[in-house]
Protein 1
Amino acid sequence: MRYIYLHGFASRPASRKATYFRERFAERGLELHVPALDGGNFEGLTITGQLEVIREHAAGEPCVLIGSSLGGYLAAVYASRHPEVERIVLLAPAFCFPRRWEDELGAETFAAWKAEGSRPVFHYGEGREMRIGFGLIEDGMQYEDYPAATQPSLLLHGLSDTVVPVEYSRHFVELYPECSTLVEIETDHEMGDVLPLLWSHTSSFLFDGPEIDSQK
């Protein structure tokens, strides 16, 4: 079984949550793979490119995906297309990711981004502004807002999340109630103040629940 953690937008494998989860997995004698989803080319970032990075690390084997924010959306998209994914844990998943940018930026700024081909955004992993190409949006529009991931899914979402409101996760669970569970937590989008609680829910879901049928 492979365990893969997918970091958020403008983040990196050494993020606080990724590091915390990697350490908890190591305590259980397990390796948590945390790939750099931009493949070293942040400006050329696309949903398709990130899915390819996941595919390379999953290597066609049974796997579990844990995704934060954009990583959570990617986990759902990938799982909906790959039955070898056996469970997914989604931390404040950024559903509707490509379609939300225009509303958040405003029509004028969004149009300027499209016309110029790229725009600066703050990269939290690098601690500085970096440019992101409009290809992220053009490519992303081919993917569904709420992927039909029917594997057992645990969603953990902050009630004070202003980046990705909890309503997005609530809607996903309404669409797929037979396989998904949402735990709402008193925290914000970063969830940095509730890491032990995130791990408690995650470890219970992955290791203390019913056995996963790795032959399916």
Note: The first helix runs from residue 16 to 27.
Protein 2
Amino acid sequence: MSEEQAAQRERSPRRGMCAAVLSLEAITLGLTTPVMISVAGVATGTALAVGLGLTVACIVVAGMLRSQWAYAAGYAIQVAAIALGAVIPMMFFLGGLFGVLWLTADRLGRKIEREKAAAWAAWEAEQQR
């Protein structure tokens, strides 16, 4: 097996898709900070802690997706994003949308990884003949 094949075999579609969702969600959650301050009237310190805290959490978890616990943390971020709708009603929709994207990326990524492993196993069996 060449180095290119080995690198391709180790790439995780699940990790890539979930990291993309969290990266886009980080932008959305970062932009909630000024909305909380100016529109919802949330105290500046609280808005910074919540908005930027969730933004940083998205970025950190996106980078840690090699560990299984990070996927559970991703689900917790989705719940927090939806709960932010109590302050900014539009976040019920946006949080829900990102929740659906996260769930889809996680489930579809797992399915692709299973099928990819089966294809590599079949390829290796064929090479043994």
Note: The two ends are 15 Å apart (CA to CA).
Protein 3
Amino acid sequence: MCLTIYLDLDGPLVDPSARYYSVYSDCIREQGGIALTFDAYWALKREARREEDIVMAFHPRLDARRHGMLFLDEIEAPLRLEEDVVVEGALETLS
């Protein structure tokens, strides 16, 4: 019998906020826009706003669909994952 364990790293063990903001702001700049501040972006994410919704509401001249595709292409890229920060106490808890 094989036991499989699934872990949700984003949030409980790893803080992905820097990665998400970095990808969001790079995608906005790639389309010629100006990104929201980190705090403004994360206030919207905490409200469970989707990337495309943020673009439509705060960057109406940009292509929300293109942003979504750019975002999905980048968000799990190995170099982007290096931007995540281990949550304080996570390593000790896992040990």
Note: The mean pLDDT is 92.
